[in-house]
Amino acid sequence: xxxxxxxxxxxxxxxxxxxxxxxxxxxxxxxxxxxxxxxxxxxxxxxxxxxxxxxxxxxxxxxxxxxxxxxxxxxxxxxxxxxxxxxxxxxxxxxxxxxxxxxxxxxxxxxxxxxxxxxxxxxxxxxxxxxxxxxxxxxxxxxxxxxxxxxxxxxxxxxxxxxxxxxxxxxxxxxxxxxxxxxxxxxxxxxxxxxxxxxxxxxxxxxxxxxxxxxxxxxxxxxxxxxxxxxxxxxxxxxxxxxxxxxxxxxxxxxxxxxxxxxxxxxxxxxxxxxxxxxxxxxxxxxxxxxxxxxxxxxxxxxxxxxxxxxxxxxxxxxxxxxxxxxxxxxxxxxxxxxxxxxxxxxxxxxxxxxxxxxxxxxxxxxxxxxxxxxxxxxxxxxxxxxxxxxxxxxxxxxxxxxxxxxxxxxxxxxxxxxxxxxxxxxxxxxxxxxxxxxxxxxxxxxxxxxxxxxxxxxxxxxxxxxxxxxxxxxxxxxxxxxxxxxxxxxxxxxxxxxxxxxxxxxxxxxxxxxxxxxxxxxxxxxxxxxxxxxxxxxxxxxxxxxxxxxxxxxxxxxxxxxxxxxxx
Length: 569
Fold this sequence. Notes:
569 residues; five-stranded mixed sheet; four-stranded mixed sheet; 15 helices
């Protein structure tokens, strides 16, 4: 529904066009009924031009030929039709039909004055009155639509950039939570296993056993608190003191591998620590060792660490086997433990957040690998990870569904699947994978016949060139018509009554022009038996409705009369 301001504006504009149409029709000496009818028609057509742009243009353009009161409305109707007619083909058809009908009716009604010059000037006038406003309106409408679309697109870019920044912060919190879970969780699990073993040591005194119990309860409480902190970080709750940019996980993995020995080389340290806690751990290797990328090397360490931690938690005392198999295209890290022996501490008191395997799945996915975990036939548990030697950027198989090549990527449903695979924290393009707005995408993908902006600009350029050519040609024709139909007052004074007709006609133009049509209306009577030549004067009439005329009448080969008078337009 239109706002009140627009309704008032449209009503006032309709009244203005109605009064203007009635006034022009009255100046054309139309009757009262005709004046009122044309005024009402102009007002109604003006109010309907937004709803029925094509119909209003056709009716107004054709009606302006017999009724001068509709002429001012043609410009506005053409502008409105150019803005509101959908589709280039439909707009061309409507404007072409309006132009042809108007020009044809003009030629039919003014057939007595028809000439080549009149044809050129009439065609040029209708081109300016109908086609040019339509092109201007269409260009303005398309420019406004494009501006609005680009403004909306810019707002979408800002929203997407804010979303990417939020995702980066979330990835940072998840990385911190993963590191806390992997590092602190493993150490606390070892403490719990050690204290559990000490509690059942028969050589301890009651006081020492009580102290060990306190230590065990403290480790369990610490794991509870660690679980709460990890949960807060994983849930995405804002945490103070963190930057907006996620650290580069690849750089972090490389630093861990070189500085903290958290790679394949560090697995022996994990095995030694577990053996020191009294757990039987066997480390097996097969195949020729091959280098891994820093992130894959770190992921191998995390798989072994997570497998040992879970075994200590849920199957204390069970034997553990860690196997490193160097396959032709990937490293397989496998941690398997037997069923719990039940001879050492109660594994049920150890807190488990259920986040370790999820984090491992994400880590291996980012390097192009995968993780599998599940029970074994003998009641134990097995954790295995497959890590490719090369990174996804360096030639790993493409993770595109349906590809014939093998992929290690285990797709997940989180938001990171929407971002190109790569190291977290790298400068991923903000608009990677984000589509354009529907309106802009449609405008960019249309074919040439439906391309609004391209066709509009091309048509404007062509029509502008045609207008320049038509203006030059029309100007030349008009000047030629002026030379045929107009003289200066001094040439009128130089002609004397009694001169021979041949001598007078040599001094005057022949007057065969559309500009001399109608000069006999309201003129003085012609001498009996005489033939007269009426020409326009270069002077201005006494009023805007008066036109000065010079008339020369000939009889029997001589000039018998010359008169100067004014006629009404």
